[in-house]
Amino acid sequence: MFTGIVEEVGRITSIRKNGSSLQIALHAQLVHEDAHLGDSIAVNGVCLTVTHIRGNELRFDVVPETFRNTGLASLQAGSAVNLERAMAANGRFGGHVVSGHVDTVGTIASIQKEDNAVVVEIQPQLSDCLRYVVSRGSVTLDGISLTVNEVYAQSFRVSIIPHTFANTVLQQKKIGDGVNIEVDIIGKYVERLLSFAGDSQHARPHSPTTAKIDKDYLTKHGFMG
User: Fold this and answer.
1) Residue 185 clears pLDDT 70, i.e. is over it
2) In the chain, N or C: fewer CB atoms in 10 Å?
């Protein structure tokens, strides 16, 4: 699990494509320090497993499923990437719950300066994911935990503070570039639970009662206002 607080920007040193899979090597100044084989590191918001360590260089294998559903395939040697290690049990929870499992790729539709903020509008390739994006809620772009400003029919906007803009790959993005999007996982779990509400076929065979999870139940128990 991650929090969407980028620890550093790394640099791709090599990328090897083999059909619909990749082998990525990158240089890091920080996240390699306590890395071990098998550790999880978010690379532009994609949870990848460390398969090789040599000094400051880390290597990862990207399977076809990840290749098809993220923007990693567009990377090349020299590309900058956001990096975050998996959250430590005793660490601060600075962002929100991030799994590193990308839901879709989005395209930057506009970039506007507003006082000290940079406002970015994103159009997801899979517009269905917008049902999980809510105003003042959380969303992850290239591994960065951000607060949603506004949601439209085909897009949404986020405001980026100067520190985040200066210390992530967002400063290098331009209109038309792609970003990995992970929506808030809590919304997906709630939707999944609601889909089973009142469905006796999915009740546990030895469960004495089957609670109906609906809007009234969630409101009563403090999940909704």
Assistant:
1) yes
2) C
